[in-house]
Amino acid sequence: MIAAQAVCCQENFCVEDPVREGTRCAARHPARLLDSNFMPGLRISAISFLNTAPLMWDFEHGDSGKDFEISYTIPSACAAALAANQADIGIIPAITYAEIPGLVILPNIAIAAKDHVRSILLICRKPIEEVRTVAADTSSRTSVALAQVLLTKFYGGPRELIPHPPNLQAMLAEHDSALLIGDSALQVSLHNSPYHLYDLAHEWRLRTNLPFVFAFWAVRLDALSRMPQGVCLVKVFQQSRDGGLQSGSIAALSKEWSARLGLSEEEITTYLTQNIHYFLDRECHAGLKLFLHYAHEIGVISRIPDLRFLGPVAFAKG
User: Fold this and answer.
1) By CB count within 10 A, which of 82, 156, 157, 182 is most buried?
2) Do 49 and 108 meet the contact criterion of CB atoms below 8 Å apart?
3) Can you give the residue ranges of every domain in the chain?
């Protein structure tokens, strides 16, 4: 059974501090690096996908970066950076939490989906029951694990998953189906497609009646003692999420990412406000526990981890 545990914040690194000024990524303030008294902040490994943009709002547009060094990559690389002690905080694929010791979860923040997620698509040349091979974009290991769980438990048994760069035509030229993740999936039209399209978060909801949790912020326990005095990680990251979900922030992100992805601002807004759920509430917690149980059952992970949170676990409203 998976237990939810709390790791208490010690006073020296989690203190209420209502006034914090001038926060930015250290890399954006090179003059500070010339100060012999400057101590580098905790290292954040963030994701360069659209769905994480609201979580990073205060770090990019506000004052939450001066205590951190920030780099951007893909989800699987975030987990690898935490495991290798190349990052202190990372937004990791949920499945990798079972494989990296010494982590705690920042409570009440997630990248989840209550139903359709839109950005995790299994695209098949034949009905899913007839699929035998899957060309898989491996940028998010949780999405790959979700495909394995769904296919094994609900669609006839395990399939062969072959790692492949996210190029749909090339993937389907040699395999029955293609698993596309993140921005690559968002650029696939859902209308008049010649293929069978399966939104994996929706398939999970149909089979379990629970949301699916793709990722969350995790922190290395050994990094907490280096947190600057007066900075509370939970508060900083929750407030950044809340700022990113304000209507003005969503409008700004939709305009910015529309140009990047070639999607309309309306499509971006819908994705950020209706497809992605940014709270690790009780229902999402239950979905996460069930997913880890199933992943262990089919051999994707070797153990079912206890879910340990930094500070008291207070679930958000669903």
Assistant:
1) 82
2) no
3) 4-112+212-310, 120-208
Cα distance between residue 118 and residue 193, in whole Å? 15
Distances (CA, A) of 154 to 105, 150, 206, 298, 311: 30, 5, 11, 12, 37
Region 120-208: CATH code: 3.40.190.10
Q: What is the pLDDT of residues 27-63, one digit of tens each?
A: 333 323 333 333 458 999 998 889 999 999 999 998 8
CB neighbours (10 Å) of residue 280?
27
Beta bridge partners of 46: 72
> Do residues 159 and 133 touch, judged by C-beta distance below 8 A?
yes
Please report which confidence band the pLDDT of residue 315 belongs to, taking 50, 70 and 90 as the band edges: low
Give me 172's structure tokens: 């389907």
CA distance 135 to 167: 10
Phi, psi of 80 (to 5 degrees): -65, -35
Tokens coding 240? 């950044």
- Measure the CA–CA gap between 200 and 180, rounded to whole angstroms: 10
Question: What class does CATH assign to 4-112+212-310?
Answer: alpha beta
In which region does residue 105 sit, left (phi positive, over 0), alpha (psi from -120 to 50) or beta (all else)? Answer: beta
